[in-house]
Design a protein that fits this description.
Layout (H helix, E strand, L loop, with lengths): L7 H5 L1 E4 L1 H11 L1 H16 L11 E5 L2 E9 L3 E9 L13 E7 L5 E6 L1 H19 L6 E5 L5 H12 L3 E5 L3 H12 L8 E4 L3 H5 L4 E4 L6 E5 L9 E4 L8 E3 L1 H6 L1 E4 L2 H7 L12 E2 H5 L13 E4 L4 H18 L3 E3 L21 H18 L1
Parallel strand pairs: 1-6, 7-8, 7-10, 8-9, 10-12, 11-13, 12-16, 14-15, 14-16
Antiparallel strand pairs: 1-17, 2-3, 3-4, 4-5, 5-6
C-alpha cells in the first residue's frame, strides 16, 4: 500500500536494471549464491504451475533467425521477455541472443521493472537446467559433457558444478576458439575451483563416460549432435539448444530410447527436439515431477532427457528474483517510462501548446491591471 506521502511520480516510476546492474548483483552475492537463488525462485514457481496463465511464445521467424515475445502472468504479476536468436550475429560483432524483460503489477498494469535479460537469460537457463537435473539425473552424477562452448556455456558449467556437484566437464565445440575461451574463463574464475576441464576432439569423445550430457549449440539447423549409439545406461541428456522450429540437436533415436521431460508441452512439441516425433509420443512436464504428481527417473540405468526450450515462467521467476535483489541491494535506477500526469484523465496536457512568450506576458499584465483596478 502506498503511504500518504507517496507521489504520483514515485508510483509510476519503473526500476531499470542494466547489464552492469545485473553483473553487480552477481558480484555482490557471488555466482554460486546467484544461481542457487534463481534456481530456488524457478522451483518455487514450478511448484505453483497451475497458478499461471500460460501460452506458447509468439515467434517471428526469418531466414537468419527468430524474434520472440514470451508472456505469462499469475494473479499479481505479469511478465514478458523480448528475445532474439540469430546465429550469424557473431560475424557482425553482435550477440546471438539479446533480450530484455518487464515485470508489471496485474492490479494496475504498472510496469515495476524493466531489465536487461541477455545476461539474465543465461543465468536462468543454467539454473533451470540444474533444477531439472536435480530431479532427473542420477544423484551420484559427477561428470558432464558440454557440447557447444559459446556464450551460455560458462553459466551451464558453473550451475552444474555448484548445484549438482559436477567435478569434471568434458568440452567440445566445432570452434576450437570457443572451447579455449571457455577454459580460460573458468580456469581464471575462483568459482570454478576444483572443476576439471577436458577439451575433447569430438562429440563422441566428450560424451563417452559422461553421467550428464548438455547440448547448447546455436546453429539454426536440424542437426543430430547426439545419436543413440552414444548413449550409456543411466545417462541424463540436457538438450538446451534445440529451441525453435527447424532447430534441433538430438537425433530422434535418442528421444525414443529415453524418458523425456519438458517444460510446457504445447510449446516443446513445436520448438524442441520433440518436433521430430508424433503427437502421441509420451512426455512428462517437469512441474509434475517437482510436485510429486509423477515420477522422474524410474531406475539408475534409465536414460532421461530434459528437452529444454526455455519457457516464460522461468523468465517470470528470474525477473521476480532480480526485482527482489535489486531492492535489497539498492541497485538500478528509477526511470519515467510511463507518462506522469497530475490529472490522469488529461493525457493531452503533455503536448498542449504553451502560449507564446509575448502572449503570456500580455496576459500577466492584463491580470495585474485588473487586480489593481479591483483593489
Amino acid at each position: 500500500m502506498s503511504s500518504p506521502h507517496t507521489t504520483s511520480a514515485s508510483r509510476t516510476n519503473t526500476l531499470f536494471l542494466s547489464p552492469q546492474d545485473v553483473a553487480s548483483i552477481i558480484g555482490r552475492q557471488g555466482m554460486a549464491a546467484t544461481l542457487q537463488g534463481m534456481a530456488t525462485y524457478i522451483r518455487q514457481d514450478f511448484l505453483r504451475w497451475e497458478s499461471f496463465d500460460k501460452a506458447p511464445r509468439v515467434a517471428s521467424h526469418s531466414p537468419d533467425g527468430v524474434i520472440e515475445l514470451m508472456p505469462i502472468a499469475d494473479a499479481s504479476r505479469y511478465a514478458f521477455k523480448y528475445v532474439n536468436g540469430h546465429p550469424k550475429n557473431t560475424a557482425q560483432g553482435l550477440s546471438t541472443v539479446m533480450a530484455f524483460g518487464v515485470l508489471a503489477d496485474v492490479a494496475t498494469g504498472t510496469p515495476l521493472l524493466l531489465s536487461e535479460m541477455t545476461l539474465t537469460t543465461a543465468l536462468r537457463t543454467a539454473a533451470t537446467s540444474a533444477v531439472a537435473a536435480r530431479a532427473l539425473a542420477r544423484p551420484d552424477s559427477r561428470v558432464m559433457a558440454l557440447i557447444g562452448n559459446g556464450a551460455q556455456s560458462e553459466f551451464q558449467a558453473l550451475a552444474f558444478h555448484h548445484l549438482m556437484d559436477i567435478e569434471e566437464i568434458r568440452l567440445y565445440d566445432i570452434d576450437l576458439a570457443a572451447t579455449a575461451k571457455l577454459m580460460h574463463n573458468l580456469q581464471a574464475n575462483p568459482d570454478a575451483a576444483g572443476l576439471r576441464l577436458i577439451a575433447c576432439a569430438s562429440v563422441a569423445d566428450a560424451v563417452r563416460g559422461a553421467d550428464i550430457v548438455t547440448t547448447i549449440t546455436a546453429d539454426k539447423t536440424n542437426a543430430a549432435i547426439i545419436t543413440a549409439d552414444m548413449l550409456e545406461p543411466g545417462m541424463h541428456i540436457n538438450g538446451v539448444g534445440g529451441d525453435c522450429p527447424g532447430k534441433t540437436e538430438i537425433h530422434h533415436g535418442v528421444l525414443r530410447a529415453a524418458k523425456v521431460f519438458v517444460e510446457f508441452e504445447p510449446q516443446t512439441r513445436i520448438e524442441g527436439d520433440l518436433q521430430h516425433l508424433p503427437a502421441e509420443f509420451p512426455v512428462t512436464e517437469l512441474w509434475q515431477v517437482l510436485s510429486g504428481q509423477k515420477p522422474g527417473r524410474d531406475n539408475a540405468n534409465q536414460i532421461t532427457m530434459f528437452d529444454s526450450v526455455g519457457f516464460a515462467m522461468e523468465d517470470f521467476s528470474a525477473l521476480r528474483y532480480l526485482f527482489d535483489q535489486a531492492q535489497t541491494l539498492r541497485l538500478g535506477a528509477p526511470i519515467a517510462l510511463i507518462a506522469q500526469l497530475s490529472d490522469p484523465k488529461d493525457l493531452y496536457r503533455l503536448i498542449r501548446p504553451m502560449p507564446a512568450r509575448s502572449e503570456r506576458a500580455a496576459t500577466q499584465v492584463d491580470a495585474h491591471v485588473a487586480l489593481t483596478e479591483t483593489a
